[in-house]
Amino acid sequence: MVTSNIKQSEQRARRPGSRSSTVEPGPCEGRQASPSNPNRTARGAVPSEKQEAVFFYCSSEEKALIRQAAADRGLSMSAMLRQLATGAAPKRRRVAPRVDPALVLAVSRYGGNLNQIARWLNTATRAGRASEIEALRVAAALVGIERRLAEIIAQHRRPPGC
Predict the structure, then answer these.
(1) How far is it, in rounded angstroms, from Cα 69 to Cα 81?
(2) Phi–psi pair at 25, nearest 5 degrees
(3) 16 by DSSP, 3-state: which?
(4) Helices marked H in 17-131 — which ranges?
(5) pTM above 0.70?
């Protein structure tokens, strides 16, 4: 019975970086794919080109030096180490601009209305229920939403006090 417990524990997957010499047969314990923990990329996302991981041990002083060197270069530690190892220039990420939360809220509200109307129009058209008058009303509502969105965005593009 003791040997079966040992065999079962040896067959379990180990976390990356663990000091165990056991071969990893599958995903880490507790990380299996399930509806609440899917093992796939986000919808529409392109899987990363980077599929492999490298782990190494260093002292806390060395880690602090690496972290500081990466911060000085404006890179993550992994990007800096990858650049040093390969000599390739890192891909620069664009910093997301700061946006007024009120603008985001207003645009998302109108965007939701726009999506609902477009969905209704597409469904009604496919089912043959959309009369020309209803379609014109919906089109007018869409134009109104588009104009209001343009006004909101234009207000937020103007410098304060104008």
Answers:
(1) 10
(2) -80, -20
(3) coil
(4) 60-73, 77-86, 101-127
(5) no
